[in-house]
Amino acid sequence: MAYWLVKSEPEDWSWDDQCGVETEAWTGVKNYQAQANMRKMAVGDEVFFYHSGKAREIVGICTVAKGPYDDPADEKGKFCLVDLKAKGPVPKPVSLADIKADERLHDLALVRQSRLSVMPIDAASWQLICAKGGL
Prior knowledge:
By secondary structure, the chain is α+β, with helices and mostly antiparallel strands. The protein has 5 helices and 6 strands; from the N terminus they run βαβαβββααβα.
C-alpha cells in the first residue's frame, strides 16, 4: 500500500462533498508531476484529503477505489483520473502550519512544492500525521 495527499479548494470540492458520494473521480489535475503521481496510485492506497486555500489543513482520509484510467474529457489521452472513496474524517485536522513546524516533515512535497495538488506521503510521515490528527 502507498500513501498520498490530494488537495482541493473547499469551495470547489470539500470534504463534506466527498462524504456525500459513494466514490468520486478526481478531476481537474493538469500538472504533469501530479498526473505522474496519480498514475502510481492503486486500489486500496490511502489518501489524505487536504483543504487548500484559506483552510490549509488535512481534514479526512480517502481510499483509492479505482486506479488510474483515461480521462474521458481529454481528447489527446494525456491525462488520467482515479476514483476516491471517503474513509473517515481526521478527528483533529492537521494544519499546514503544524506540518511545517515539525522538522521531521520538512521533506514532504507539501512543504517543498506548495502548488503540487497530488503527492506521495512516505509511511513514517503518514503515521506521524495520523498521530497529530488523533488517529
